[in-house]
# Entry
Amino acid sequence: MKVRLMNKISQEGLKRLPADRYEVGEDLDHADAIMVRSASLHDAEFEPELKCIARAGAGVNNIPLDRCSEQGIVVFNTPGGNSNAVKELTIAGLLLASRKIVKGIEWVKTLDPEGIAKAVEKGKSQFAGPEIAGKKLGVIGLGAIGVQVGTCLLVSEECPIHENYKNAVIKAKDTDTVVTGRSLNSPVRILKNPMSRQYIKLEAEAASRDELEKLTLGGLRRAVFEGDMKTGSVMMGQIAGLCKEIRPLKDILDSLVSDIPSVLAHAEQALEESR
# Structure
């Protein structure tokens, strides 16, 4: 099978394609498949041999879906592929913004080296910034990244949810969740329990919105405040399989950002490769 690359794709992904079965390159004609990152395909002419287009990322806005559908070309993406890296960068951004680190760096660059020690001692207080400890953190995000960060924070000592909920996250494996609500265009990933299994059964039977909403009415409240893990809506992401203990929020944040230097270096390398 011939796979044409429209952008530079990470070797970590390409090495999963056996060389004896796949011919991979940027200048292939009559390709069976296309792998693309950011290149726009809206004006591209698709050859008759093309069977599928793979987007190395979450969105598919650079791919003409209607035309692909008409020509029988399968389009798929890789949601969540980079969510762990972005999750760590999100936490890094939180710390950078809160403690005014970037502003402080830019200010130091303006100082005279001769008297820098005295100047820093005099002016450093303007960049102290508020501490994160004790603050409420809201995660605004509907995708994999928001879910992963939020799930990690569920098992913090400071999170005001029932202990049964926290223990359920800790005990869960990455295969212990299921996505419900697809039939209503409102997908939610929750723990597999009697309620979620009944919900999936009703969805398969084409149940009405009223029936589905009746089943889940009050489900989140039962899970969060009452600790009902059987009939409650126990929301969590697949990253729950990596959450093994209840820890202080500070420790969780520290672990999330511990690999940031290597993540930044990897992002910089990927950016250079894409140019």
Summary: The first strand starts at residue 2 and ends at 5.
